[in-house]
Design a protein that fits this description.
The chain is an alpha+beta fold. The chain folds into two domains: 88 residues, no CATH class; 121 residues, Aspartate Aminotransferase, domain 1, CATH 3.90.1150.30. It contains five helices and 14 strands. The longest helix has 24 residues.
Length: 216
């Protein structure tokens, strides 16, 4: 058995599409079978996990090394096709984070990059390969020792950090230079339009600094 969880980080299954694709339901599991060649049969099972099985008819047994290049080349295209046709990308489990993502995509034509496999909901936004925004879900205590639980935050560059951190919902940036970056909690305590304005400010600071460096 080979776990496919890493292929589906930030993706949510559309069960209706699974049936259209050719999955069958057995014992509350969605199962897809495919003959890869004369000897190899692939089975993908979706329940609470997503698992891959490949059986070798000649040996009457399951294949052991799914990472062998010749074998992976056969199954990975099917997995990617299933992800594209039967799954929905869910970047963040937070309303304001999704509004921000849409705002940046609409205004700046920039998509989030999910660069950290251990932190699948850490989305980075770049201009000319420089970060101007980052959305994260973190332990609240990392920015406020008096809080608990998980919280979504956005990190933004700003030239007025010392004043902003006196406002409700604003903190010195988690995991970035606290002199130049702020963290804003995405729990509806800070108006979304104010956050949009601060995103624009962060974009301008990073863009023009980068432009200045290239021209000097």
């Amino acid at each position: 058995m080979y776990s496919l969880g890493a292929f589906f980080v930030n993706y949510q299954v559309d069960y209706g599409k699974l049936k259209e694709y050719g999955f069958i339901i057995e014992n509350n599991e969605y199962i897809f079978n495919k003959q890869l060649n004369d000897n190899l049969t692939m089975k993908i099972i979706i329940n609470k996990d997503i698992s891959l099985y490949i059986f070798d008819k000649d040996f009457n047994d399951e294949c052991l090394n799914y990472e062998l290049s010749y074998l992976k080349n056969m199954w990975v295209n099917y997995v990617n096709d299933i992800k594209e046709k039967c799954f929905i990308l869910v970047k963040y489990n937070n309303k304001q984070a999704l509004e921000i993502d849409n705002y940046i995509k609409e205004k700046y034509k920039i998509d989030a990059e999910f660069m950290f496999s251990k932190f699948p909901h850490f989305g980075v936004y770049k201009i000319n390969n420089k970060w101007f925004s980052m959305i994260m879900d973190i332990d609240y205590r990392l920015i406020d020792k008096n809080k608990s639980g998980q919280v979504y935050v956005i990190n933004l560059k700003n030239d007025n950090v010392e004043n902003l951190i006196n406002e409700k919902g604003f903190y010195k940036a988690y995991h970035m230079n606290k002199k130049y970056w702020i963290s804003i909690c995405l729990d509806d305590k800070v108006d979304i339009n104010k956050i949009f304005s601060l995103i624009d400010k962060s974009f301008e600071l990073v863009y023009f600094l980068n432009k200045k460096q290239f021209s000097s």
